[in-house]
Amino acid sequence: MPEDMEQMDLFDFPAETSPPAGPVLNGMYYERSTDMFVSFVLGRRHYEEPAKGCPHLKEWQDRIKRERAI
Hints:
alpha+beta, three-stranded antiparallel beta sheet
């Protein structure tokens, strides 16, 4: 094996992982700072859609803005 290569141990990982500091977001949320609807999967940003020109029903948009604003 060349000297500039390092062999990795795929099973060498920490035994315990610390739990997330806050709640893990899942689903669609309204982000006030960017005026966008944002989809989260296991706490990671997945998809963004601008609030202006959003194809979803106005009732759905109002409910998400009211109940799931971040």
